[in-house]
Automatic annotation (TrEMBL):
Catalytic function, reaction form: [protein]-peptidylproline (omega=180) = [protein]-peptidylproline (omega=0)
Alphabetized InterPro entries for the sequence: FKBP4/5/8-like, PPIase_dom_sf, PPIase_FKBP_dom, TPR-like_helical_dom_sf
Gene3D superfamilies: 1.10.150.160, 3.10.50.40
Biased composition (Basic and acidic residues): 9-24
GO molecular function: peptidyl-prolyl cis-trans isomerase activity
EC number: 5.2.1.8
Region of interest (Disordered), ranges: 1-52
UniProt keyword Kinase, yes or no: no
Name of protein: peptidylprolyl isomerase
EC class: isomerase
Record keywords, A-Z: Isomerase, Repeat, Rotamase, TPR repeat
């Protein structure tokens, strides 16, 4: 197929990446305005590029050798290297052009005319009054190291360098429980705190037990990952890990995320908490029984009193047999089912549940008082997904529909209108893929679909949503005889 030349040119122009501000600045560089002299060769084959963090010492001198400014302690500086991210940090033009020519460990002298350093018109980096920004200057740069980093905060106050990849994709979040080896050093390399022997440091995510910036960085790590997290003073909040933070401008945290326990605030108000105490098989949440399934579980139910009184244990009170139930049918307390849907096969979880999601709205065991907070220790042995209708003939589909509809009717009679509605709506969604083969099947199909819409309408009416009930009724399609 031929392509019109004008169209092809237009297509190509759309793919051209617009020039960045740094690219536009580089066009100001003229021959002779930036000169480089190698003082010590570096190592390796790669040089820094956009997205790399560069760590370097910098000493600025006049052309006759007078030190104007330095990061080195022996020359009056603080001894702390500068950290910047190419393409992200504000940087003088000479270094923006110079760093991509350097190797790890290299020391180079850059001779810059004023327009290549702080004398540049509209320079994004400011200097103190009295700085000779209108003079030609020497910049001695030691590139200590460069590496790819993940930008955690947009202002570059928190960065992460991965030194060893972790396993899986799940990362911690509030209120997960974390175990990690942590070594903290100041920007100039002085040890601040070390938790690298004995037991890993334990903390709960979201409880301000580690500096905010460190928690932000750990929140991007997977289990087993090793990383260096660079945190500036803005994100160094006081906490048990580092009680004193005076005069610390930045901290480099060397972290190994040993383990984290998935803790979920299921309702979002702190009342229904699921805490994983043994990992299951597979990946969360893809391998969880999120959809209605047949589940096999062992569980132990306890009152949240001082004695942690056990009121039921399947391994004792059910002849050692697990509980078998179908989710979505109101066969277990709501809090129990909500948490079980978030479990992996083989997982053991400890669930703390308020009374309104436990037994206050469910047939209550004789030894469970009204209004009791409950704790369940649940082990999900396995589950069977609800079968789909692939390969079913029309009669087999309709027989399955009657079973699901019957469950919905039972739930409706029990006053569990939300669950009943979910059953009816599930069938209606699946009906979108059913194609009756003759008039008789078509009539049965239409009648059943209309009845399901009316059942949904009845549920909405009981739930106090008359407008939605009317909308469901309007979906009924008359069937001709």
């Amino acid at each position: 197929m031929g392509v019109d030349e004008d169209s092809e040119q237009e297509f190509k122009s759309q793919k051209i990446k617009p020039a960045s501000d740094d690219d536009k600045r580089k066009k100001k560089i003229t021959p002779g305005s930036l000169m480089k002299a190698l003082m010590r060769p570096g190592s390796g084959e790669k040089t820094p590029s956009d997205g790399d963090q560069v760590m370097y010492h910098c000493t600025i001198r006049t052309l006759d050798g007078v030190v104007v400014e330095s990061t080195r302690a022996e020359l009056g500086g603080k001894g702390t290297p500068i950290r910047q991210v190419l393409g992200k940090s504000k940087m003088i033009l000479g270094l923006l052009e110079g760093f991509p020519t350097m190797f790890n460990g290299e020391v180079a002298m850059f001779k810059m005319k004023p327009e290549l350093h702080y004398g540049e018109e509209n320079c994004p980096v400011t200097v103190a009054d009295g700085f000779p920004k209108d003079d030609e200057l020497h910049f001695e740069i030691e590139l200590i190291e460069f590496s790819k980093v993940k930008v955690i905060s947009e202002d570059l106050g928190v960065l992460k360098k991965v030194t060893e990849e972790g396993q899986g994709w799940e990362t911690p979040r509030e209120p997960y429980e974390i175990k990690a080896w942590i070594l903290a050093k100041s920007g100039d390399g002085k040890l601040i705190v070390s938790h690298t022997q004995g037991e890993p440091f334990f903390f709960t995510f979201g409880k301000s037990e580690v500096p905010n910036g460190l928690e932000m960085g750990i929140g991007t790590m997977s289990r087993g990952e090793k990383a260096v997290i660079y945190v500036t003073s803005k994100y160094l909040t006081q906490c048990p890990l580092i009680p004193t933070l005076e005069d610390i401008e930045e901290v480099h945290f060397e972290v190994e995320l040993v383990h984290f326990v998935q803790v979920r605030d299921v309702l979002g108000d702190g009342r229904l908490i699921k805490r994983r105490i043994r990992d299951g098989r597979g990946e969360f949440p893809m391998d969880c029984p999120l959809r209605d399934s047949l589940l096999h579980v062992h569980y132990k139910g306890m009152l949240l009193n001082a004695e942690k009184t056990v009121f039921y244990d399947t391994k004792v009170d059910n002849n050692g047999q697990p509980l078998e139930f179908r989710s979505g049918e109101g066969l277990v307390p709501e809090g129990f089912e909500m948490c079980t849907r978030l479990m992996l096969p083989g997982e053991i979880a400890l669930v703390t549940c308020p009374p309104d999601y436990a037994y206050d709205k469910f047939p209550r065991p004789a030894n469970v008082p009204q209004g009791a907070d409950i704790q369940w220790e649940i082990e999900l042995l396995d589950y069977e997904k609800q079968k789909d209708w692939t390969g079913f003939n029309f009669r087999e589909i309709m027989e399955d529909v009657e079973k699901i509809k019957g469950t919905g009717n039972r739930l409706f009679k029990e006053g569990k209108y939300e669950l009943a509605k979910a059953k009816y709506e599930h069938v209606l969604r699946e009906f979108n893929h059913v194609n009756p083969q003759d008039d008789e099947e078509g009539k049965e199909f239409s009648n059943t679909r209309n009845l399901l819409h009316l059942n949904v309408a009845a549920c909405f009416l009981k739930m106090g949503e008359p407008r939605k009930s009317i909308e469901a009724c309007n979906k009924v399609i008359p069937v001709s005889n």
